[in-house]
Design a protein that fits this description.
Layout (H helix, E strand, L loop, with lengths): L1 H6 L9 H23 L5 H12 L7
């Protein structure tokens, strides 16, 4: 939806709805991971951010 909105391929009056849905779903998933770690007594901010960086940073560097 977001790509179609910005490319002006079709008229979407609710073009930002796709971004909102993405944030809701990602917030739900991340909250679930944090809650699971917290309930098991192994949550740490450093570990949380390390796992996020390990997952996201490889995509930031070209092959």
């Amino acid at each position: 939806m977001v790509l179609f909105y910005h490319a002006d391929l079709i008229s979407l009056p609710q073009g930002f709805l796709g971004v909102d849905i993405f944030f809701v779903i990602s917030g739900y998933l991340i909250t679930g991971m944090v809650a699971k770690d917290f309930s098991q007594g192994r949550f740490s901010f450093a570990g949380f951010y390390f796992r996020r960086a390990k997952r996201l940073l490889p995509a930031a560097y070209p092959p």
